[in-house]
Design a protein that fits this description.
Layout: H1 25-40, E1 45-47, E2 57-60, E3 72-83, E4 86-91, E5 99-104, E6 107-113, E7 119-125, H2 126-139, H3 150-165
Antiparallel strand pairs: 1-2, 2-3, 3-6, 4-5, 6-7
The chain binds nickel (II) ion.
Nickel (II) ion binds near residues 92 and 93.
Length: about 170
């Protein structure tokens, strides 16, 4: 089932999430729906708050469906190590049409649970490292807008207010 993507400034995007405690069939269905919703929106990552759920789970696929082995479920994830820096343009399905430069670590090691509850660790670089940071931020109620310069952030927020007034947001 494809869920509509929750857009900024919805309150659910601003709030910390509740840990996943039950790794059951309902959770498996939820992650399937999240992948489906993410692919429909042509994203590389989706966090539960982006479909209106305050739960600590995100899905990532930096190949956008091209490689089934690249599908990652991150339940209760935490970043346990970072190295280096990268500055690249970043966007978000909840802030469609806007991008900005965000400084992130170049290498990120994450500890998370998969859809069955099994704990794993993964070290990533480049786009995947960036996706880890972006999605885990979502689970703490943080959008990429927070990492932009105040000038850039205000400009985007002003444009979104304008689009909201004309019913285009
Ligand atoms: Ni996002």
């Amino acid at each position: 089932m494809i869920h509509p993507i929750t857009k900024f400034p919805a309150a659910v995007l601003d709030q910390p999430t509740k840990p996943i405690e039950k790794f059951d069939a309902d959770l498996a269905k939820l992650t399937e729906d999240m992948f489906e919703s993410m692919y429909a929106a042509q994203g590389v990552g989706l966090a539960a708050p982006q479909i209106g759920l305050g739960l600590r789970i995100a899905v990532i696929d930096v190949t956008v469906g091209k490689n089934p082995e690249a599908k990652l479920v991150l339940a209760n994830p935490e970043i346990i190590r970072t190295e280096g820096e990268q500055r690249e343009e970043e966007g978000c399905l909840s802030v469609p049409g806007f991008r900005g430069n965000v400084l992130r670590p170049k290498y990120v090691t994450v500890r998370a649970q998969d859809v069955t509850g099994k704990e794993y660790e993964m070290r990533a670089e480049g786009l995947l490292a960036r996706a880890f940071c972006h999605e885990i931020d979502h689970l703490h109620g943080i959008l990429f807008l927070t990492h932009l310069s105040m000038l850039k952030r205000d400009l985007i927020k002003r444009k979104i207010r304008k689009l909201t007034k004309t019913g285009e947001w």
